[in-house]
Amino acid sequence: MKKPAEVKEISFDYIVEFVQEKGAADIAWLKEFVDSQVVDKKSGKIRNISFVEVRNEFAKKYVPEIVRPPKELKPTMKERLAKL
Predict the structure, then answer these.
(1) What's residue 82's pLDDT?
(2) HEC secondary structure over the chain
(3) How many CB atoms lie within 10 A of CB 55?
(4) Residue 1 pLDDT more than 90?
(5) First vs last Cα of the chain: how many Å apart?
(6) How far apart are CA 73 and CA 65, in angstroms?
(7) What's residue 70's pLDDT?
């Protein structure tokens, strides 16, 4: 099993093989995480978790060295005015 160089290279097959090698606790984590639901930010409705969310959480937990740090956001107009 080839280790991915970046998060986008992680497939669901890779995730399944990886947790099978790790053991029962990691398989249980994956099953529980995939079965979880989240609130959609746009509509506010409850939805099933997407593969991208599963892949990103997997990468954070098991291969954090390939996860890029989040971009630093520029201050908003109101934040800049508040500093004056």
Answers:
(1) 93
(2) CCCCCCHHHCCHHHHHHHHHHHCHHHHHHHHHHHHCEEECCCCCCEEECCHHHHHHHHHHHHCHHHCCCCCCCCCCHHHHHHCC
(3) 19
(4) no
(5) 55
(6) 22
(7) 83
User: How many CB atoms neighbour CB 31 within 10 A?
Assistant: 11
Q: Which two tokens stand for residue 68?
A: 């890029």
At 39-65, the pLDDT tens digits run 988 899 999 999 999 999 999 999 999
Q: Is 4 exposed, middle or buried, given 0-12, 13-18 or 19+ CB atoms closer than 10 A?
A: middle
Q: How many residues does the chain have?
A: 84
Between vectors from CA 62 to CA 26 and to CA 67, what angle results, nearest 5°? Answer: 150
Q: Which tokens hold the place of 17?
A: 């093989």
Which pair of tokens denotes residue 10? 């992680």
